[in-house]
Amino acid sequence: MTPGNLASLIKTTAHDLLASRSLDTSVLPDEVTVERPRNPEHGDYATNLAMKVAGKVGMNPRALATELADELGKADGIDEVSVAGPGFINIRLAADAQGQMVAAILKAGEQFGTGDDYADQNVNLEFVSANPTGPIHLGGTRWAAVGDALGRILTARGAKVTREYYFNDHGRQIDRFARSLEAAAQGLPTPEDGYGGEYINDIAAKVVAMVPDVLEQPDAQRLETFRAHGVDLMFGHIKQSLHEFGTDFDVYFHENSLFEDGLVDQAIAKLKDNGNLYEADGAWWLKSTDFGDDKDRVVIKSDGDAAYIAGDIAYADDKFGRGFDLCIYMLGADHHGYIARLRAAAAALGHDPEAVEVLIGQMVNLVKDGKTVRMSKRAGTVITLDDLVGAIGIDAARYVMIRSSVDQNLDVDLDLWAAQDSNNPVYYVQYGHARLCSIARNADQLGVTVDHADYGLLTHDREGTLIRTLGEFPAVVQAAAQLREPHRVARYAEELAGVFHRFYDTCQILPRGDEEANSLHSARLALAMATRQTLANALGLLGVTAPERM
């Protein structure tokens, strides 16, 4: 019996009980909460349903819990039901009923953990979107891992996800980048507001190799040559780094196209027509305070040039115009102000502001030998995605970026994450999967199969704990999707690996020596293979490999 099956049983039983007493059954929640008690001695699962609905039907919570417990105790697969405290219902399943979780996982295979929560959702997920003025830094690396994992998780729960990279090829930062390349090629110092570093010298040299006469070109033409080729080279490197990191995009949207294709003009005209843009002090302002922003925003400056938000407005309008039901923006720590303004822009354009979500990722620090490694993009001392991967590998780099909530600053200890031991969380999880694959190979050699496994034999405490931990996986994935928190899957994988290792140390899975294989071996092998499948599914959602040997 899965937690979902148990929740359905509890709800049905509660419905019948209330109906038999002519009480209002509409007070029952759509989903019944079923959780594992903190103390395993209290049972396998617990529910607070009686406490949630008793007051609504005029009953004492403990009295309702007692009646509901009596009815649940009559159901097949329920071994024991008790009432605790003000009305908690603790439930212990029969071993064979609990063991059906194992059969369900083996049957579901790669689909275990998936669902249809977002089956009707067309989601635009925009992340990384780093300016093409330098390699991906640690903050962008965090979004590359978290964004890709969130896309995988939302897809697993039924959403149609479009991964999008907003290519910032319009604005002053590109001008500074082009001037920096030009200066490097001419052997001049980096401009005061420019970008430095070896990558600037490398790209400048490549531009000169591609256009040998570039330094003889007129000033405006020369700068444009460095701009065009430099941006292409830099973005090509960014895309390659992301691809090797396991993060690919469905759409690369060019900011410049918003202006070249007239989308900015169209969005401004729409806002003027619907009265949400007004003129004051020679500029045009968005009535963003009408839609929850803390101040109105200048869209067209007094000199006639578009402010930066003009592109944001046009981009939001374009996303909704492409039919997306939900637009998720994943932005850096210095973009808190964008939350209100993007939602206000959507509302002013006539779109649902609730369909705009902005996730803010906090800073990432690199730690080596107990000391923080300082970095500066302008000074050319930036720590890049490629640097991190080179130091600890792709799997560790992805995992460390995902396993903590993005609203927290993250310290990446290079010594810890490069270690090949159980102190390294990703190594610990991957080793669990590799150990399970080894068990499968040994079982094959011994002729032990999971066919006709008797799950009623799985009565050991460590077996029960492992089964119940496996049963939590769908709910973990569901919560990770709903809360936009992929770290929940990583932390679950670590918990599951730990529970499995303790089971392995206590329960003999396969026959030893001259021992004959028996039904218990088959049942424990089935439990092990269900664990292997679940670990593989969890790692897959994180974009981390599940090795068969280590």
Question: Can you describe this structure in just a few lines?
Answer:
The protein is α/β, with parallel strands linked by helices and 550 residues long. The chain has helices at residues 3-20, 49-53, 61-72, 95-108, 138-156, 172-185, 198-210, 219-244, 255-260, 263-273, 308-321, 338-348, 385-392, 394-402, 414-418, 425-446, 461-471, 473-483, 487-506, 519-542; strands at 45-47, 78-84, 88-93, 122-126, 160-167, 251-254, 277-280, 283-286, 297-300, 326-331, 356-360, 364-368, 371-373, 410-413.
Fold topology:
Blueprint: H1 3-20, E1 45-47, H2 49-53, H3 61-72, E2 78-84, E3 88-93, H4 95-108, E4 122-126, H5 138-156, E5 160-167, H6 172-185, H7 198-210, H8 219-244, E6 251-254, H9 255-260, H10 263-273, E7 277-280, E8 283-286, E9 297-300, H11 308-321, E10 326-331, H12 338-348, E11 356-360, E12 364-368, E13 371-373, H13 385-392, H14 394-402, E14 410-413, H15 414-418, H16 425-446, H17 461-471, H18 473-483, H19 487-506, H20 519-542
Parallel strand pairs: 4-5, 4-10, 5-6, 10-11, 12-14
Antiparallel strand pairs: 1-3, 2-3, 7-8, 8-9, 12-13
